[in-house]
Amino acid sequence: MARLADYFVLVAFGPHPRGSAEGQGQILQRFPEKDWEDNPFPQGIELFCQPSGWQLCPERNPPTFFVAVLTDINSERHYCACLTFWEPVEPTQEGLCTEDTAEREEEAGEGGPVGLSTAAPGPPGQLFAPKTLVLVSRLDHAEVFRNSLGLIYTIHVEGLNVGLENVVGNLLTCIIPLAGGSQRTISLGAGDRQVIQTPLTDSLPISRCSVALLFRQLGITNVLSLFCAALTEHKVLFLSRSYQRLSDACRGLLALLFPLRYSFTYVPILPAQLLEVLSTPTPFIIGVNAAFQAEAQELLDVIVADLDGGTVTVPECVHIPPLPEPLQSQTHSILSMVLDPELELADLAFPPPTTSTSSLKMQDKELRAVFLRLFAQLLQGYRWCLHMVRIHPEPVIRFHKAAFLGQRGLVEDDFLMKVLEGMAFAGFVSERGVPYRPTDLFDELVAHEVARMRADDSHPQRVLRHVKELAEQLYKNENPYPAVAMHKVQRPGEASHLRRAPRPFPRLDEGMVQWIVDQATAKMQGAPPAVKAEKKTTVPSGPPMTAILERSSGLHGNSARRLEVVRNCISYVFEGKMLEAKKLLPAVLRALKGRAARRCLAQELHLHVQQNRAVLDHQQFDFVVRMMNCCLQDCTSLDEHGIAAALLPLVTAFCRKLSPGVTQFAYSCVQEHVVWSTPQFWEAMFYGDVQTHIRALYLEPAEDRDPSQVCGDSLGPRDGAGLALAHVRPLGQVGEALTQEDERSALDVASEQRRLWPTLSREKQQELVQKEESTVFSQAIHYASRMSYLLLPLDSSKSRLLRERAGLGDLESASNSLVTNSMAGSVAESYDTESGFEDAETCDVPGAVVRFINRFVDKVCTESGVTSDHLKGLHVMVPDIVQMHIETLEAVQRESKRLPPIQKPKLLRPRLLPGEECVLDGLRVYLLPDGREEGAGGSRGGPALLPAEGAVFLTTYRVIFTGMPTDPLVGEQVVVRSFPVAALTKEERINIQTPSDQYLPDGLQLRSCTFQLLKMVFDEEVGSDSAELFRKQLHKLRYPPDIRGTFALTLGSAHTPGRPPRATKDKGPSFRTLSRNLMKNAKRTIGRQYVTRKKYSPPSWEHRGQPPPGDQEDEISVSEELEPSTLTPSLALKPSDRMTMSSLVERACCRDYQRLGLGTLSSSLSRAKSEPFRISPVNRMYAICRSYPGLLIVPQSVQDNALQRVSRCYRQNRFPVVCWRSGRSKAVLLRSGGLHGKGVVGLFKAQNAPSPGQSQADSSSLEQEKYLQAVVSSMPRYADASGRNTLSGFSSAHMGSHVPSPRARVTTLSNPMAALASRRTAPRGKWGSVRAGGRSSGLSTDVGTRLAGMGPPQANGAPPDPGFLRPQRAALYIIGDKAQLKGVRPDPLQQWELVPIEVFETRQVKGSFKKLLKACVPGYPATEPGSASFLCSLEDSEWLIQIHKLLQVSVLVVELLDSGSSVLVSLEDGWDITTQVVSLVQLLSDPFYRTLEGFRLLVEKEWLSFGHRFSHRGAHTLAGQSSGFTPVFLQFLDCVHQVHLQFPMEFEFSPFYLKFLGYHHASHRFRTFLLDSDYERIELGLLYEEKGERRGQAACRSVWEYVERLSKRTPVFYNYLYAPEDAEVLRPYSNVSNLKVWDFYTEETLAEGPPYDWELAQGPPEPPEEERPDGGAPQSRRRVVWPCYDNCPRAQPDAISQLLEELQRLETELGRPPERWKDAWDRVKAAQRLEGRQDERGTPSSLLVSSVPHHRRSLGVYLQEGPVGSTLSLSLDSDQSSGSSASGSRQAARRSTSTLYSQFQTAESENRSYEGTLYKKGAFMKPWKARWFVLDKTKHQLRYYDHRVDTECKGFIDLAEVEAVAPGTPTLGAPKTVDEKAFFDVKTTRRVYNFCAQDVPSAQQWVDQIQSCLSDA
To answer: N or C, where is the chain less crowded by C-beta within 10 Å?
Structure first.
């Protein structure tokens, strides 16, 4: 409640004391006479009653009324309502003022203040003096004042019978409520009645119609200018002739400023005597009578608003910042809609009926609503930027201005910046920041309506609706009771002022008035105060801040990518990938221009701080500091985005060790930023941290899980506040961390505490105040040290700080405080003198820092209410803190100068194989480009991975370089180049200048036969002795003195050589020695595996070389016993010899001979006679030929003793033996060494001149002739046709029984043109391009001359057709050396024919390979760009010419064999080119050898058993060093690769398999390719050990075992295009133009080294994007695949591999045991095959159908030349020519042959006759175990597996050994729950197996199945 009026004053005209012309006001009376205690009487009231001055008037003016406003010293406003009337002057006054009258009249005539038109002239010479009734009140009820003063005047003028004393007394004692929307009726005791309505909310201003009037007078633009001017603290002056309008205009402007309060000079009506106030320097809002316009124009910095003229004049020197867009334009348009609704409709053709405009009062509220809405938009989210510095005893609140501006995106905005810095906003914060208080309309609006306003912005009508809603509320606040009862107040009659007043205004009785007042006061004291308690609540914070204007989306489009770059860079830095980081750094520095990236950097760096500390190495430290500096350089001094705030805790966390005990922190490197010397920044940081800790004080212990986690980050209680998530609120996460940890923000906590405060006891209150104060104090200490960190430079002697930093020198003037604190300044001065620093010179850095910190401490501590004792203590501490820090920095500076300039990269250790050991640790080297363009950037593009810097390692197996590119922009790719030591072919010293132009003499170039080249330069830190040691060790490992020193034999070897290696190898050890060795090894092998001797049965192919793991003792063993009845050869074997047979039979040759039906080891003569060939054990002791296998295929008719003599005719005793037989034509392929001079050649030369006596040589020649004759007669058709047959006869004879495929067409010569035509239609390369048909000119040329190169060349290197062979075909062709067969004329009567050909020697192969190496890996940059130089050097090497010759010879032999002639290949010593040709012929002729196991068999048989000299050709030992590396086997693999390229669907193995063998035949990782023959392997004990020795999965000693193991895990060796044609004979094109350079020679993967050591190649899997183990930035899944760097097939697997992997992954996810990839693949193929069979002629549904023979042809479209001319016929099915019946019969034939090799198939799933679970009793003392058993009728086996989906057989029982199946009985440990009848036993010749089924019926089923199997057999 409050008094309606405080004072009633009567002021009259009085003479001026100094006799001046003007008079002055005199207070005649005032009531009450003594001042109220709460409200002293305002001084100077008489000036404001007559603002234009007290003057006499010649006529009587009508009474005037206005309200002036006075402001007292406490900023309280007093409203002075003045009613002025004129009375005649008494003569005394008149005499005093006569001389002035003339002037007065002139003034009046000019329209002066008294020249009113209504004035009535009095009697001549009569003057009138003004008299004023004044009501002084603190309430603004202008209408009530007008009525009340009017009543008093009326009573006086009209002479009503009412005591004026009573009226005045009643007026002064009238009490009314302040607010709350109540209604009070008052009466002053003169029969009057007035109703007073109080506003609902006191805080909302009352504007009546003033705002609407202001807009009417000035217009929208002008009012907006004034609004902005007032908010930004400019001087505003209103001019008008009407005082009432002046006060209304000022009131209206103030009402627009709500919710801000104007706190500067506010004088709506300024008296003329006080006009000098207008030149005050402070802002003001003042109204002045228009008469003084001239004075106003002299003011240079005042904005003048002329209300009467409707203009606003802004001086040139004044800039009024406009509202930020889009608010300016939005506000303008809404205002025009409110003021001028017609504007929208003005242009309409058919305007709607005019809408009624709002009343003036309503329009006023609508205009105010527009501005209220504007403030809500401007200040949206302001509560998120409040810092609660103290809660008790009174809230202390600070506003984080910079964060607010940053968040709103208005940092650059002049308007908002000035508003926030203004006094009005400071008042707003202290008044409205309080968390617990009554709320009003603005609080609601800013908290809850933001989203609506944002949504409405683009819809003017919705905005208008919102404005009207708000206006309603404002109107209701002012007029809570619209239907108010009418006032009843008497008014004077018309023109009453003209009537002569009966008397002057009487003097009132003071006593009576005072008595009335006292009475009322006494009554009030007795009554309880009727105060309506204010309802306080927690002020809602509203939604978080958003930018006023969203930035264009284009900026954000790529911001995610930028953030990813920043995250990646930081994770690279912390993972130590410095080159990667260096590569990304420029992009990161660019990205850090953006705010989001800077924030991201701070957050990412936070993740890498543990326990307030993160120790980095030098490079990491440099990177982090550089990025921090980049972040900070764009920070303004205000740090509006909180970046410096976020980095502040980090700069004290990241550090590096310079030396023991000296640590350099990041802050010493990031000081050069203006933000650190800005007091406002430190204050905001300080207040943010204080808020965090104050909040922590009040959180309940349950909520406050860990005091150090208060700020939501992992920092400690002090540094922790660093990121002060009060600060991250400004950062836009709006306190996410806080809200997650505890929903209650600091404001919520403060609100709760303020609510509880009155209920607390005094002690508790004191305790809380003390706690808060000490919290602030401890933070002040912490900040003093933090500031010293960032303000003191590393070298404190330099004055950099003062000169370069804006502001630290004149920091005295800088302050964030809104009230200058004089006390703080004086305190600072007083303590500074004691600080111990003299201010003698200006460069006194420590002194300046101490002063700066002291000033900061003073300010924040005074504002935060720290006690003066604490403050004094702080001032004493600051100099000590600074001094201590200076001392620390001295050590840091000293040590930092000693840092080495360049950090060398860390050595990367290579991954090693199991068993591989490091011989020499890393020597630092540079790896230089090897001349290939791919790795060095070059013209093909790609990264310059070389040169690289790293280290070279030497292990027992490899030479390895690991390092990183020296080019920093390439990145952190690890470069690995390695090769097996055994593959080294050349090592030479080189001298090269390194990239850094230092001359390093020690260079080394190592070249390997696996096509790697290490061109290295040793770093200067590697001494020449280290380099020499490296060379020596390398040489020692490359050429061990003995084969036992190779890696394959030393790796986990059972027998390291116990004796010194023999210097010279015994050329011919006695038979006794050999047999002893054989015996010993065989015994050891057999004895180790099996105790008893067992019968031999060839194991299924998939178990060979893969013995069962040794931990399972209950194996069903492979039977190994040799039964004399089946194995005794035709001559009796000694028992000791027989021992060795077990292994001989098991060799690859023997298995293959059995497959080919080439002979058996049987003594049954009847059976033997029918076989043309037999297996002879004559060489079992390797007596005849050391380099041949133990068992050989010879004609049945030749006795063993004759073989000894035959062998002497051939080099190395390598006599002709059969190695393959064609299944179709029954022709055989033989191989032998070249002939000695006295051999068959001599025989041919002298056959017509018999010599008188035969020498030994002649007799052996005869033996040889007999031998060849025996071979010829062993071929059935020649035996039948009396030895000779014409080709045509043979063809016609065999045509019926065998229809050759189009590839193997044999044509009769009766129609040469038909032959030619048929040949033209036969398809060539499967990937059929258009080939030219061959010419028939080769028909008459003989084979030898053609191959010798004398016949006409074949077009395109096409394989020769059968048509060109001689009409009379020989039974046996002998392919021999041209030089050897010189001058021989073959006799046509002979049954064999010599084919002399020119072959290259091994030395030519060696030379050619050297050139090839240099072509593919030149070792120096190419002179000519592009591929020209490569192609030239490739041609010079002649490598492809040799490949061409090999293929040509092989295709010739294939043709001969296919046409029914046998061929003996008898070249050089029979172990190099012979082996190549023989192997290629078999590969081209027999599809079996194109499978994985077939190829293995081929290599084992032809290369290993037949004694290709791997050790000699590969220079494996010291002895072979001089001979060098001759890649005969590699050349063979290259030929296979060429065939594979032309026929990709015919090979089961992939091209990778060939490369794998090419790499490992030289690598010495496996024992397979060691030594020169089986004999040597037996002698060393390798042959049997490889066979069956039990061992775990440790190291594979055989390459085949490794391939098999790997194939189970991955299909890397498998060719998905494999879809063979049965019995397909391949005839590849062999011309050089058809050959391709093998990519094995040119490809390289620098990421991991050669990909052939699978364990090394499979790097650790990258963690997926979601789960990075280190919590670092999520890596993108994107990957760049570089051709020379990555392993492309692994980086981009083919679709089928991908699908199989996906299948396995899904199976694992579903919890099913993943099946082998091969099973999945076979199942799909089988399904497709069935589908294809149902629809024989249909279109293939997918590629897999190609395995159906018929569809094979219809897969591709072949373009062929037709028989006539060159018309192209598109043939989809080239079987058409064969006719339907032939085609059908061939289908049947093919299907049958497809099952021919089923016994060699690995997929056992196809041969499961019956399967199920059985329990089997283990070995002695072992338990019964449930196993999955499979009965296989095809293989005649009972196999078992661990479980159903297991693909690896654990053992088997051969059903051939089973004697009986009988019911069994349970034994110890048998399953308890099973019926006794479910047991059965299987009795074999060796042991009894006990089984148990799950129930009786299944046991019976098993017994029946096994019995039926036995009976079938």
So the answer is: C
